[in-house]
Design brief:
about 70% helix; 2 domains; MetI-like fold; mainly alpha; globular
Amino acid sequence: MDMRRFLAKKLIYLAITLFAILLTNFILFRIMPGDPIRAFIPKGLTDEAREILMERFHLDQPLLTQFYYYILDVFRLDFGVTSSYLQGSEVSSVIAPRIFNTLLLMVAGTAIAISAGIWLGKFVAWRRGKPADTIGMAFALTFYTMPTFLLALVLVIYLGGKLDLFPLKGAYGEIPFYDNPPAYSDMSLIEKIFSRMYHLVLPSLAFGIQWMADFVLIMRNSLTDVLTEDYIVTARAKGLSDEAVLKDHAMRNALLPVVTVVAITIGWVVGGEIMVELIFSYEGIGQLTWDAVYVRDFPLLQALFLIIAVGVLIANLMADMVYTYLDPRVKI
């Protein structure tokens, strides 16, 4: 099967799955107990305003018609108005800045997890059975079994509290070395970037260290298995250096399971690391989802569920593409 047919097949599966997600997301909030119209219309509106919103979002139409317009609205990124959270605001305008914050957290945390995890996993696998392997595995298992909220609290107490090195909450705001820091809106572009990076350190560390332990364990086990394969023995028999054997022969196949975990990680973070965002009061998708559940803001939840599901789909498609590059046998 050539690459174009393989990609076309994956895209067809993606489209079918996306349609199933849209259908489920549409039905889920309409079969819940109570009046679904009340769930999607902000409280306290006049009858006239209520009628206008019902007509705008086609809530007075049959379900089939509603689903048709729901599909159109989704592709126009029109998710309606919030029913509780920032009452009456457009859902898309509420979500947009939170997605940006969560994507920053995802990039920073995933970069820490992947780079450090793969390097440490490779390091201990090449030295399996030696003291470095024992110490590395103890380190990985400690953070692998540690709950996310506990690691986040430790960082808050020591790095943010006792040492006062980093801010304890928020996605932006205060910056160090300023006696009278300006408001975020009055900062220059460089100051805004520095402010975001400064506030990103602790939550990205909490997220990155937790997932780094996963990558260490998976990389170590995968590379250990690969190093026992016949083609590795053959490569060594040819007189290749250890570095060449590891880089050119072992790592490519050992990365296959890691790609799967990367896809899962990205999909998870698109939904927001809820515990991390809550502990650091980081204004991302995770905290917004928690707030929307707490106040039962159904239009906002419907949009969030859809975004999270699409994020997971895209992450898995990316993983499939990377798989074909690392292992051409996947295309057959």
